[in-house]
Amino acid sequence: xxxxxxxxxxxxxxxxxxxxxxxxxxxxxxxxxxxxxxxxxxxxxxxxxxxxxxxxxxxxxxxxxxxxxxxxxxxxxxxxxxxxxxxxxxxxxxxxxxxxxxxxxxxxxxxxxxxxxxxxxxxxxxxxxxxxxxxxxxxxxxxxxxxxxxxxxxxxxxxxxxxxxxxxxxxxxxxxxxxxxxxxxxxxxxxxxxxxxxxxxxxxxxxxxxxxxxxxxxxxxxxxxxxxxxxxxxxxxxxxxxxxxxxxxxxxxxxxxxxxxxxxxxxxxxxxxxxxxxxxxxxxxxxxxxxxxxxxxxxxxxxxxxxxxxxxxxxxxxxxxxxxxxxxxxxxxxxxxxxxxxxxxxxxxxxxxxxxxxxxxxxxxxxxxxxxxxxxxxxxxxxxxxxxxxxxxxxxxxxxxxxxxxxxxxxxxxxxxxxxxxxxxxxxxxxxxxxxxxxxxxxxxxxxxxxxxxxxxxxxxxxxxxxxxxxxxxxxxxxxxxxxxxxxxxxxxxxxxxxxxxxxxxxxxxxxxxxxxxxxxxxxxxxxxxxxxxxxxxxxxxxxxxxxxxxxxxxxxxxxxxxxxxxxxxxxxxxxxxxxxxxxxxxxxxxxxxxxxx
Length: 598
Prior knowledge:
The protein is of the alpha+beta class and 598 residues long.
């Protein structure tokens, strides 16, 4: 069987090259060897005439009554002259010339030629390099010091300073440019480079520049071969004998590589089969020892309850979630798990964690399916989906169903669910992935904690827990999960994630947000800490009553206590719950968390 696979692979590897040979003959009969425009030398590959098929070249030439123009990127440029032997042309930009003659700063704003396509590269000779630097208050001193020490000339234009040094214009661009600067390259006349006025940048510039085009076919042209393209980008020479020889060598190489890949594929597949077998045995053993946790369904029953996975509710790294209906008419959410890592740990975590719980703020596990690589978890259906889709919606607080009071109730409900997991079960459960996406809302917008794939269970109430791997979602992971130098992993790690989530609920945005108007607002906890500490207006873009302002300020203080960098300074989730239900006057302002963005 394996030998048949190798033979088929070897034969199939020749097919693309046989097809290419057919296209070669077709292209030879269509593409002209050269073409001409009035008053210009003849053009050959990589240029093609606008009137012919674009498969004959890479750079479009548009002939006019007195000459022609070429298309580079989105822009068109007049051809000043054409070199006879090399793929080189001189072009002239009349718009640029007028701006230079008028000493108009617009001439300095952008590179003379737009970026070239990936099919070829260009070399422009000669040019001068300018550094266009925005006049940002935070960078002005740094820019002046940087360019003064290298004796750069400066030209002020509008909101920018332009720095240039005539004598080093062709050298490599420095790697340590100030962040407010960008590189601009503009053409300059050879005569002007020695005779121009260095203090007047416009006297150095020229609207005429020579461009040399570099393509994979340059070598072929130097050897007096004729170049063609297939589909606009595959080059080859007219010498058909060398083409066939190369194709044969390539075919043999591709066939050999295919055979090697086949061997590796079969070997890896065999190892995976053995690994999956061991993994399945581990999961089956767990299910046999814990038959009381939830009802087991067949995969056929799962397909029936989801009507062949008709309605998809969501997608994540774990797999996909579908809406389903049980035989008694109850609605359920069916999570189809993707390939599990380790020995089925994520699947076992879900069944073991949720199967042991019974709390109004923890999602209920209705059942599960395990048939080899087909794994599914069946939960009670939450009609309002996850908290995430509400709190990141700018208008969510104006909804009649979700106001500040309801948001406070959701925060309290999540805290009660976590308190139950930490101290209310026979087995202590640490979730390690508390975030808005994993908080589901029922028809009354009551919260339920879900997704226990990263959970850690302990039969003993431990103040700390050993962890071999970091787990969680960036932005919500406690510092001690990054490095033990911050402290020990414990139930306080869930408290940290809870605090980050509470602040996002209040802010209606991600805690780290680069698209804000001011740099000081990028990390929300630092920004809101200052508002609370100095008793300033919160500035949360929503109108609030005095009672709501007090409620929100209380939630912020609790959130800031929960995200303290040292786990010992964080409250337990029970203490956080008490703080949420206490009077604002009884709450102390916590120290400012010193991590800017964990």
